[in-house]
Write a structure and sequence with these properties.
The protein is built from two helices and three strands. With about 90 residues, it is of the alpha+beta class. It has one domain. β2 and β3 (about 20-25) form a beta hairpin.
Length: about 90
């Protein structure tokens, strides 16, 4: 079975995707509401950036596994990693 397709989104402390409720981070006390909302946002960032991070790592591995690495290759790696990192950090 596959997981719910991305993108996921947070609505307060709820996580929703594809028209359904995926998860919730329920506060036990009112002061925890902001922390629960931050947890839901973190889950969404992690899920939505997962494939891009895996792709960047596989690309980096493929390039570095060659017998020769050229400066242009390193620039390509850097750009792929920065793009994935920006998505993971929600920039």
């Amino acid at each position: 079975m596959e997981h719910t397709p991305t993108p996921w989104e947070n609505r307060g402390y709820y996580v929703v995707a594809n028209g359904m409720h995926v998860a919730e981070c329920l506060p036990r006390q009112k002061p925890q509401v902001k922390e629960c909302e931050a947890n839901a946002a973190f889950i969404v960032r992690a899920v939505n950036s997962h494939e891009e991070l895996i792709g960047a790592l596989k690309f980096t591995n493929a390039v570095l596994s060659q017998n020769k690495v050229f400066p242009d290759d390193l620039l390509l790696i850097k750009n792929e990693l920065l793009k994935a990192l920006a998505k993971a950090e929600a920039k």
